[in-house]
Specification:
Distance between the termini: 21 Å
Shape: globular
CATH architecture of the largest domain: 3-Layer(aba) Sandwich
Radius of gyration: 19 Å
CATH class of the largest domain: Alpha Beta
Strand content: 25-35%
Helix content: 10-25%
CATH superfamily of the largest domain: Vaccinia Virus protein VP39
Number of helices: 7
Length: 290
């Protein structure tokens, strides 16, 4: 299990009854989480003291109810990096804290290089991984189909006072971008992707993980340089086991170089006890990086 247990500005306080209670800096939020099918460990008063609570509606959406007047956004830090967070209309906050365990892994491999690795971040969202990789010394091409998410990622890069020349931000469908880069014979030393279970690109392109993930990873192998650093796949799709990600990496990325595939659950520790499962990650690294 990859456990993101190095946070100070964030923590999961409790889980249960289909929800999670989290501290984001100074503020405590209660949000849905369908995997927490056990009863909470903390008394109800702890949950009632949350500054905001996201309530689902019968139509599949939901809304926030605020017990405290929160700022529109605030920042939290992980190691030397800082990020903007804010409650959004889809229960998210703009950051997936469990990914910190992958930020550490990627930044460590990048920092071990003496050059400036070129990193491709597909489905880059608000740029947590982008900031971590760039701060470690990489040049990052950040791709996401949502213009608003790319703008958020740019602001996170600016918040960390990182040089603009370390970034290239692209609003485009991931598949279309990869195919274009293949035609241009571009090469990247590291590739990471955080694809959704289902989604649509800016041109109406339909994405369904079960159908699209393997072909995308296979196409991405054509973008790898001769001195690669890593390949990372994240998945939040319920029922997609870590071994599936390891098999995909071995049958695609592993055909180019002799290396190491590993895939595990990703999780966050819970202060009240246990861990919160947060999907899975598949990692590939090469022998030359040992």
């Amino acid at each position: 299990m990859y456990l993101a247990d190095q946070w100070t500005d964030f923590e999961v306080l409790d889980t249960g009854n289909g929800e999670k209670l989290e501290r984001w800096g100074r503020y405590v939020l209660a949000r849905p989480d369908p995997q927490t099918i056990w009863p909470p460990a903390l008394p109800e008063r702890h949950w009632q003291a949350a500054d905001a609570h996201y309530l689902r509606s019968g139509s599949g959406g939901g809304h926030w109810e605020y017990a405290t007047r929160l700022p529109e956004e605030w920042t939290i830090g992980y190691r030397e990096w800082r990020f903007y967070v804010r409650p959004t209309g889809f229960k998210h906050t703009g950051l997936f804290p469990e990914q910190a365990v992958n930020w550490d892994w990627m930044s460590g491999l990048i920092a071990a290089r003496t050059d400036t690795p070129r990193v491709l971040n597909l489905f880059g969202y608000t740029g947590g991984a982008t900031v971590a990789c760039a701060a470690a010394g990489a040049h990052v091409t950040h791709v996401d189909a949502a213009k608003g998410m790319v703008q958020w990622a740019k602001r996170n890069a600016e918040l960390n006072a990182l040089p603009q020349e370390r970034f290239r931000f692209i609003v485009e469908d991931a598949n279309a971008f990869v195919q274009r880069e293949i035609r241009r014979q571009r090469a990247y030393d590291a590739i990471l992707m955080d694809p959704p279970s289902y989604g649509r690109g800016p041109g109406g392109e339909v994405w369904k993980l079960e159908n699209e993930l393997y072909p995308l990873v296979e196409a991405c192998t054509r973008l790898l340089s001769e001195r690669p650093v890593f390949f990372l796949i994240n998945s939040y799709t319920t029922g997609l086991q870590p071994a599936v990600l390891a098999n995909i990496l071995e049958r695609t990325v592993g055909q180019r170089f002799s290396g190491f595939a590993d895939a595990q659950e990703v999780a966050l520790p819970v202060r009240a006890g246990g861990v919160l499962p947060c999907g899975a990650s598949g990692r590939y690294r090469w022998e030359q990086m040992q």
